[in-house]
Amino acid sequence: MSLEYAPRGLVGMLTPQANTTVEPEFNLLWPPGVAMINARLMSDKSSMSARLVDYFDNYAVSLRQFANAPIGVAAAACTGASYLAGREREATVVAEIAARDGHPFITAALAVVDALMALRAHRLGLVSPYPDDLNRASVAYWQSHGFEVIEIANAFNPESGFHPIYSLDGSVASRALRTLEGGRFDAILMLGTGMPTLWPIAETIGWAGAPVMSCNLCLAWRAVEVLEHHEPSASSLEPWLAGKDWVDRLKAARV
Question: Is the pLDDT confidence value at 86 over 50?
Answer without folding.
Answer: yes
